[in-house]
Design brief:
The structure holds two protein chains of two kinds. Chain A is mostly helical. Helices cover 78% and strands 0% of the residues of chain A. Chain A has a domain at 25-55. Chain A has helices at 3-6, 16-54. Chain A is rod-shaped, with a radius of gyration of 21 Å. Chain A starts with a helix and ends with a helix. Chain B has a single domain, classed as Four Helix Bundle (Hemerythrin (Met), subunit A) (Up-down Bundle), CATH 1.20.120. By secondary structure, chain B is mostly helical. Chain B is globular, with a radius of gyration of 20 Å. Chain B has helices at residues 2-7, 11-43, 57-84, 87-119, 127-147, 152-166, 169-179, 197-229, 234-244. Classes of the chains: A mainly alpha, B mainly alpha. The interface between A and B is medium-sized, with 29 and 36 residues.
Chain lengths: 55, 245
Amino acid sequence: MTMVEYFSFLPYGKYAFYVWLAYGVSAITVITLFLSANRNHKKALINLQNKYSRK
Amino acid sequence: MWKWIQRQSSPKIFYQTCSNLTPWFFWPFIGFLVIGLYWALIVSPADYQQGDGYRIIFIHVPSAILSMMVYAIMAIAGGIGLIWQIKMAEVVAKVSAPIGAAFTIIALVTGAVWGKPMWGAWWVWDARLTSELILLFLYLAYMSLNNAFDNPRTAAKSSSILALVGLVNLPIIHYSVKWWNTLHQGYSVGTGGLKDPDMQIALALMFVASIFLYALLVAIKAKTEVLIREQNSRWVQEEVTGAVS
């Protein structure tokens, strides 16, 4: 059984594997970008706070 | 308006503008994304030739357009930084690069996933695909060059020159389907490629969501970049102390 056949129970039948793969990869990329941007901002704030408290 | 733009050259004002605009970008992004996905996956009918496989274009087309648009913004901002020595333009150029690269990766991956059931191949060395791949390499080169220097001003100058030279690739990507006999289909927007109004609405909603996503990510990343660059300023010290406590 191929991946395409395996995922054909999902909406869009024979195209389900391709459609959900495309939307899944895009969602993961966007979520990663958003979370890493927020994490980097918080990290920068904490690093600078530590720097100023040492002075 | 012009005065407002001029005021943004001050790091403190630019930082405050980014902070103020973040929720104004976040909620419209979520709104347009949810409605856009509903229209793309549920409301829009199946295509008479491509069946449901065509639904990939609701991500592929906006991300492909954004990949080029962000590059143009990055190069123009870099050029402004280079000519008028405006540091905040350099910040916009620098933070745009990874976002543009991500849009390019999404466009390439979703294009490959669409290509497999439609063309029977994940990848072909077609003019449109190859020029889009070159765009990704330009983004990677820009980011590498920007990180190669300790001094942010020197880094911005050299990488901005690269970004400006790379602008030549944008018309090549856009017109590749006209100039060469490509396997990639012609324009989907503005040429009657998408005839059903629901398909057009879904594409428009996803495109607007992508623009808000770009603006949101620029605002968040620019805030971080400004804090790091201006860490010796008094206002940053006050801002950081206030934010953490």
